[in-house]
Amino acid sequence: MTRRNLIVLGLVAFVIVAGIVYMVVQQSRLPVELTGGLEPLPDVPIPPDNPMSEARIELGRYLFFDQRMSGDGSTSCAICHVPELGWGSGSAISPGYPGTSHWRNSQTVINSAYLPKLFWAGESLSLEKQAESAWTGNLAGNLDPAMAEERMRQIPEYVGVFEEVFGAPPNWGDALKAVAAFERTLVTQKVPFDAYAQGDRGALSAEALRGLALFQGKANCIACHNGPLFTDNSFHNLGVPRNPLYDSNINVQVALRYQHLSRGVPEEAYQAADRDLGLYYTTKREEDMGEFRTPPLRYVCYTAPYMHNGVLSTVEEVVAFYSAGGGDDPGKDPLMQPLDLTAPEQADLVAFLHSLCGDEIIIEAPELPPYAVISNR
Amino acid sequence: MSLRHALLLLVTPLAVGALVLAACASSTPAGPAPAFTLPEAPAIRITPLPPLPAELPPEAAFPSVADPAWEKLPAAQVALGKYLFFDDALSGDQKLNCATCHQPDRAWIDGLPLSVGYPGSLYFRNTPTLLNVGDKPLLYWDGRLDGNDLPTVIRDHIAEAHFMNADGLLVVERLNQKPQYAELFRAAYGGGPSYGRMLNAVAAYVGSLYSPPSAYDRYRAGEAEALSAQAQAGLALFEGKARCATCHSGTLFSDGQYHNLGLPQNPDIFDEPLRHITFRRFFRTLGVPDYSKLEVDVGRYALTQDNSDSGYFLTPALREVGRTAPYMHNGIFVTLEEVVAFYNAGGGESSELSPLNLTPAEQAALVAFLENLSGELVSVEPPEAPAYQLTILGGDQ
Questions:
Q1: ipTM given for this complex
Q2: What is the pTM of this model?
């Protein structure tokens, strides 16, 4: 073999090897790279003072479905967080306690374990605190904690289980812990997006892939819907229009105006009461008016209707709302700009959002233990 | 060409067109998306409701028996209180009002041994009448609230979890959404609805409920035939051999003191879980130690935690007693005959009473006397309820 032939052979071998290396590298890169911290969910954070155990979770399931944990014994958590309705209420505005209505949309319980701030305006900082606000809220559970404790203590099964789990008779603080522990089990398992993020290039359809590119690019959803939960856990004003129910339903109107009254907004704002003031109720800063915490997007397929007041009925409507640059509000976030997404682009985004959902999570309501005579006589 | 052919000719191109359209629709068309429109607020038209009368005929134009100098509160406050008394908006779930337990046509009680209380719970004591409340120095069976501060008693009823379980500001907001109240409050207090004004108004109404003069009063005034011979014999026994007047003294027939009759417990308080829950929570919130181990209703003890007060209850007034069965703090006696027989036996265990040795005829005479402590039954009509009305949000638009 001549020297020249050797060189040619070497070059050919190099090209073949380089080609193989190139192909392997290409293979490991995703067709659309992930940005903004989008990734599978980490393990559920467990507060050190509420360690998980099977018995604690099971007790929480009972309490979650127990309607006696409300003032008039009619309204369990599951009245507004219905497993079959995406763990929301399926209605624009959450129904609320008898004789009242809520004035906001009921949010899904799924993945709430990851949220550092709960409720639409982030009023609560833990699942335990959220449960307390929901049980005692005059538009939700309207429940007196001492009454709740005495009711639980009149149910022998609860007395036994509390003793086993907490080494104490049924009590308010431990009931909150049990419900929170149960809710920490309600998380989305491997959804198609997660498989994709872990290298399964086939996990997303072509439409979803284009949707992902738009999500991170032209549509700029990623600006707020980022991180493993698809939320920045911050507050934004999108100019979501007032739900017409605020104008036409007396109980919703009472609820909205009661919120104004009880949170101590200025008289002028109370008299107008033309919208949900969101974060402002807590901070009383003008610039926070109409701001709500970015909702997570996982499980979004099951949680219609959408937005803090449920004014949008479908994911398609939500995407169209963003494409139009959101609503009309002087305090609207500057991030909200018209996106001019074409109809196929909007469909692609919707396809991507569907990849965040996975299977529906349904938990059966337990058969509740009855009250019993606990007489000392 | 037949009609059928003509129709076919007409329909075929339409059908083909529809198919083509359907095919197009199933593949997403390129180009800009259709414009998105936000839902619009419906046009709400609001017709102002007619004003309600700011003064109502008084329930019973009777003055206080105990305090002849008693002056009625301004009629507008009493009238406002009447609207509120019958308004479900004052309860957490808008399903009950004051008249749920204090029913005017039953002499302002519910006629049950034990009061029902808020839905999801049951109460563990008997509902007392509201008649003559304005003259009572202490209220509730254990005298835990001051009769001179009726607004506080009203607040206790509205806010308490086992009574009406309502948040004060939520109630005020509901009243704000019943625009007819605005004028009624202005007429009564010169300003719009507030929690304090609401409590005061209900107190004004409740404080206006006096029992009409009874046959006994006419007898005392010199009308000898107002009481039958049997009732007169009963009166003599009441003040004499039967010693009732020892505690049932004064114009209201109550000494305003606490006594222990050794009454039997009402088993329903212990055997009905919903009642026992309320029972336990009540004593717990009053700070009774070992409240969960109580085997009896300890009455006054809950407030003093003095053992010698256990089982003591406030002497109830006796006016209208013929209409307020069942009797005693736990409704354990259904008839006045049973009550008199209980006293005749010297009460129950641990009672401060002693046997009276009354003959059956004497007991019957006592009952006949007690039946004469009621006035004419006054019929009370609930007023037209102020109605909810939507507000145009955003002010005058």
A1: 0.90
A2: 0.89
